[in-house]
Specification:
Poly_Biosynth_Transport, 19 helices, 446 residues, transmembrane, Membrane protein involved in the export of O-antigen and teichoic acid, mainly alpha, transmembrane helix, membrane
């Protein structure tokens, strides 16, 4: 055991593997816990109430990037650069700067949440409004959680910093709901919102503790950032990609809640939750290949990068086909877990399952563009895709479409974005991360 610890301490490769494995373990556990507490919520709430709760929870999380001005993905780049330059004051200054930004943006973010809730969701009863109010207050707290988690990654404490957000938060929700379910208590939408807010608050405390361990409690004299405007501009340019990659499920739930009855929003939420297992599998494959791909692209080893893209694509398709076969066998029993209202959601599940398949078939074209400095191209393509998501939903409803048509509109928007990024990557770099590129590599091998 001592030999293993010594080798781990002296090997950066082993440390990286342990870190990636730990983060993936947290994400797997968090994904399973999320699916489990979703099942409990559908069992404890009427479909209309569950649709409302899922929409408000998604809306609150979707407003977190506004509360942070999307500084969370900027944190890793800025803090790593500062620490590499030996400028600890600049690294600590970023954390302080993010705190000031979130304190300033907390009021407009919470006010926007309250305005949307009052306009669209029509909550009735004191309990429901109390739940929505405390949920709104978690928006800046969740913003700090995201920034602190990213800061911990920059300080090489990825596992410690990711566990509260990725695993602990859904686990807290699950444990509380298991207690409610086991005790046979009635659960209203207001109480469910309060439980979600409580879980977010406890996650904030855990993340604060993790940050103090990762970064240390001491302040650094002169800690400040001189490029705050540039940091905010960077966050703005990264926002569309983040919304589509990390918050796609939340985005689709909120859009669905704007055009569909809450009972149908409940069905869309369940369909996206089940399809999310396949999306997670695709993301896991991409994470495992991302470091090697980045190194090959930066080194301009195009043939190696093309082979890695082909291998990753085959791995993603294998995982997706296995997942689809499992769904074909077990989808109806899985839907029965959620309740009678959701059994007829089979068609919705198969529609939204197309999204991870589309993303897999066209590959990580955004990575190719990012390495080649085409951030503006990524920004505009992703911005158009973002606009197409609500426009497609509204459009199909105007033509008389229903819930299935709204989901088809979501698939169409993501298909456009994947194709546009793929075409951009081929045109600007000659690289082809899609299925066509993989087939080309296979023909050369033959």
């Amino acid at each position: 055991m001592e030999i293993i610890r010594q080798r781990l301490a002296s090997s950066q490769t082993l440390q990286a593997l342990v870190s990636v494995s730990g983060v993936m373990f947290a994400r797997v556990g968090g994904t399973l816990a999320t699916l489990a507490y979703t099942v409990l919520l559908t069992r404890l709430l009427a479909p209309e109430d569950f649709g409302t709760v899922s929409a408000l929870w998604a809306l609150a999380l979707l407003l977190v990037p506004l509360a942070t001005l999307n500084l969370a993905p900027v944190a890793i780049k800025e803090v790593v650069a500062a620490r590499h330059a030996g400028d600890e004051a600049r690294a600590r200054g970023f954390v302080r700067f993010a705190w000031h930004v979130i304190a300033f943006m907390a009021v407009p973010a919470c006010a926007l949440f309250a305005a949307i809730v009052a306009y669209r969701y029509g909550l009735t009863g004191r309990e429901a409004w109390i739940g929505a109010t405390v949920l709104a207050l978690t928006i800046p707290l969740s913003g700090l959680v995201q920034v602190w988690a990213a800061t911990g990654v920059a300080y090489d404490r990825a596992v410690l910093s990711q566990i509260p957000r990725e695993f602990l938060r859904p686990l807290i929700f699950l444990l509380i709901l298991l207690a409610v379910y086991g005790a046979g208590y009635d659960l209203s939408s207001g109480r469910a919102l309060s439980i979600l807010a409580l879980g977010a608050g406890l996650t904030f405390l855990a993340q604060f503790w993790a940050l103090r361990i990762a970064v240390g409690p001491r302040s650094v004299e002169g800690a400040a950032v001189a490029n705050g405007r540039n940091l905010i501009e960077t966050g703005f340019f990264l926002l569309p990609t983040r919304l589509l990659n990390e918050n796609a499920k939340l985005l689709m739930i909120v859009i669905a809640s704007a055009v569909l009855p809450m009972s149908e929003v409940a069905r869309v939420t369940v369909a996206l939750s089940i399809a999310g297992l396949l999306s997670f599998a695709v993301t896991a494959v991409e994470v495992s290949f991302s470091a090697k791909l980045s190194r090959a692209l930066h080194a301009k080893e195009d043939r190696l990068a093309q082979r890695l893209f082909a291998t990753a694509l085959v791995a993603k398709l294998v995982v997706l086909v296995i997942g689809a076969l499992a769904l074909a066998l077990f989808l109806t029993p899985i839907l029965r877990l959620f309740g009678d209202h959701y059994i007829e959601s089979r068609g919705l599940v198969w529609i939204v399952v197309a999204i991870p398949f589309v993303k897999a078939l066209f590959g990580k074209a955004d990575l190719v563009l990012l390495v080649h400095g085409a951030r503006r191209r990524i920004f505009w393509v992703q911005s158009v895709t973002l606009a197409l998501l609500p426009l497609g939903a509204f459009g199909v409803l105007q033509m008389g479409g229903g819930t299935a048509a709204v989901c088809i509109g979501f698939v169409a928007a993501f298909t456009f974005g994947s194709i546009a990024l793929w075409l951009s990557a081929r045109h600007m770099t000659g690289m082809d991360p899609s299925i066509l590129g993989a087939l080309s590599v296979m023909r050369r091998v033959d």
